Each structure stands twice: as structure tokens, then as C-alpha cells.
Amino acid sequence: MKKYNLDENLIAKFDNEKAIVTNSVDVFYGNHQSIFNVNLDFPRFSITALIGSSGSGKSTFLRCLNRMNDSIANVDGNIMYRDVDINSKKVNVYEVRKQIGMVFQRPNPFAKTIRDNVTFALKKHGIKDKEELNERVESSLKEAALWDEVKDNLDKSALSLSGGQAQRLCIARTITMKPDILLLDEPASALDPISTAKIEETLKNLKSKYTIIIVTHNMQQASRVSDYTAFFHSGHVLEFDKTAKIFTTPKIQATEDYISGDFG
Ligand SMILES: Nc1ncnc2c1ncn2[C@@H]1O[C@H](COP(=O)(O)OP(=O)(O)OP(=O)(O)O)[C@@H](O)[C@H]1O
């Protein structure tokens, strides 16, 4: 395995408004440290890709951003969202997840109707008005680019959807809560190229309303959809910059080796 200089990290800062900022984030699974001193500013209304080889810490870091590591790891450092450190145990995790939603690698619709998948969380939060629920179903499915395909079958089981449709339903289910930030952990890795293209198109359309942070192994996908890219290696972020820069003129050898496939 090649050795890279972990001190040589190049984290660009931008003037854009920030959606979420991490300061000195370290993550420990028991005694094993998986994330080291990550300081990243995520620009608002843009897509940031987290790239890096398997085990480099992308998912662990992503999960810190809406407290999904609470029961499995110790997370140190500050994660600032709207002037609040959401890593503080005093902060209500359910409130955090209302603002910062997550979509997982495998589409995981509930064994309910398409409509009920979208309204489930809304009803839990006390929204009962039928008209409002119907409006939210339509607008969320439209935003997730699924409405045209399912509008005549809203009361059919979500389990009858294809993998790509189910993943767009999971996106609709998340955005129906009107979050600020959408986290996606390899959302297209289980999908065929056509479904993947639809997800990518959907994400590009969503970034006018949401800040999106996506973990991907797929370099073409990172270069197609993202505005910014963070390169993870052994739990460190070695380089963060505009995606166009990372993919054309990376500043360090490790990034160049990773994106050109000459890494390990
Ligand atoms: N639940 C867990 N318990 C203990 N160690 C874990 C756990 N999850 C991840 N790790 C360790 O943390 C490190 C980072 O893993 P993580 O899954 O975050 O990397 P990744 O870059 O997302 O990898 P992949 O691309 O394969 O999903 C690895 O050493 C992994 O073994």
C-alpha cells in the first residue's frame, strides 16, 4: 500500500453560505479511531460528494451529521448547524433528523402503500388534515421525480415498486418533512444505470431547495452531480475543493491516484 502524507491536507474554504460546519470531528468505535480531526464547511444549496476507498470513513462521517452514530460510536468535536452544536447530547436528536434527513444505500420503503410511506412521518408529527396530506404527497413525489409514474397507484404497496422507484420514494419520504439538508449514503449503488441517471437528475433538481451531501464510490457520479468533493483517506480528509478542480487539477498525489484508479 502506498504511503501518503496525512499532514498534507488541503481543505479549501469558500465564501458561500454554509449549511453545516464540522470542527475537529473525531470518531471512535471503542478504542479504534475511524475519523481524525475533520474540519469541513458544506456550502448551502449545493451537492458535496464524499469520496475515498472502502473503509476510509465516508459513511461514518456522514452519519455524524444527523447523529446516526449515537448508539454505535463516540463522536467528538462540534457540528454546527444554525449556530447550534448538534453533536451536543443536549440537542434533541429527532429535531436534528427533521432538519437533516438521510437516504440509505438500499431502498427501504415501509411495507405500506406509496401514499402511507410519504405521510407516515407527517402523521407522526400531528398533521392530520387530508387536504394538506394529499398536497404534501403530490409535492414530495413531484420533487423526487416519481409522481408521473405512481400518481394513479398511490394506494398500491410500495413493495411493488422497482428498486429505482423505491429509492425515489425514499427520497420523497425524506423531503416531505421539509428538511434543510439531505444526506445520501451511496443511494444508487444498488441500481441499474437508467435508475441511477434518474436519481442523479433528481438530486440536481433538488439542490435549489436543499443542501445535499452524498457518499459515492462512483467517480463518474461524483463528477457528474457534485459541486464540491471531499476526498477521505484512512479517516482523514486529505483534500476538499470544487469538484471541477478535484477532478482536473487535484493538489495532492493521493487524490490524483484515487480518481485515476491508481490507488492502494
Ligand atoms: N459499526 C462499526 N463498528 C466498528 N467499526 C466500524 C463500524 N462501522 C465502521 N467501522 C470501521 O470504521 C472505519 C470506516 O468505515 P466506514 O464504513 O465509515 O468507511 P467507508 O469509507 O464508508 O467504507 P465503504 O465505502 O466500504 O462503505 C473502518 O475501519 C470500519 O471497519
Automatic annotation (TrEMBL):
SMART domains: AAA (SM00382). Residues 20-259 form the ABC transporter domain. Transmembrane segments: none annotated. It comes from the Bacteria. InterPro entries: AAA+_ATPase, ABC_transporter-like_ATP-bd, ABC_transporter-like_CS, P-loop_NTPase, PstB-like. The keyword Transport applies. Keywords: ATP-binding, Cell membrane, Membrane, Nucleotide-binding, Phosphate transport, Translocase, Transport. PROSITE patterns: ABC_TRANSPORTER_1, ABC_TRANSPORTER_2. GO terms for molecular function: ATP binding. Pfam families: ABC_tran. NCBIfam families: 3a0107s01c2. This is Phosphate ABC transporter ATP-binding protein. It comes from Apilactobacillus timberlakei. The gene is pstB.
